[in-house]
Amino acid sequence: MPMESNNYKILLVDDEEDIVEFLSYNLTKAGFNVITATNGKDAIKQAKENNPHLIILDVMMPEMDGIETCEEIRKIPALQKTVIAFLTARSEDYSQIAGFEAGADDYITKPIKPKVLISRVSALLKRFGMGDSSANSDDESTIINLGNLIIDKEKYTVIHNGEELALPRKEFSLLLLLISKPEKVFTRDEIYNAIWGDNIVVGDRTIDVHIRKLREKIGDDYIKTVKGVGYKFVE
What we know:
Elements: E1 9-13, H1 17-29, E2 33-37, H2 40-50, E3 54-58, H3 66-73, E4 83-88, H4 93-102, E5 106-109, H5 114-127, H6 139-142, E6 143-145, E7 149-152, E8 157-160, E9 163-165, H7 169-180, E10 186-187, H8 188-196, H9 206-218, E11 223-226, E12 230-233
Parallel strand pairs: 1-2, 1-3, 3-4, 4-5
Antiparallel strand pairs: 6-7, 7-8, 8-9, 10-12, 11-12
Helix pairs in contact: 2-3, 4-9, 7-8, 7-9
């Protein structure tokens, strides 16, 4: 019997029908509402129509691969909060970097056992607060005004010099972490544990990629590098 305890929508995208069938069956059995697609273009269409909480996206697909699909999905304002996890048999560092640059939140390596898949999916949804209705709606506590930089923690929006920026979830979380304690130097280990979780293995350049992306959007003045240690936010 499927669990009735959640209404989470998961968009599962893979061009291999047997993988889609296998994963869809196990996710549905665990109580998730599963939508499927077998290519990038259909995935974008399904994402727009269904606004899923989580998208599990294969990297290697014909016509439009997972990286390009992720980039296009991240351009859709309504899907800024959607968690995106790449499903891939590839573990090369460059593949992960490309995925995180495109706006992915995590990687799930296949083949994967059903119980492990359900555990990873549940952990991702919990980590990113999907469906959490207890969020504080007090504007004074959710909006951070730093002059030329305004961050709304509840709406996941960043305004820089009057222009609203589209930040993928990881970049937004990284920015929030750094501004939580201005002038504090966050070590790389602290950043890894806070943003990716200490049980997630990512490439050494992952943090650097996200810092570079943030600087491209908000300028170089806010985030400073402390060589050999980490990064800090300067007001």
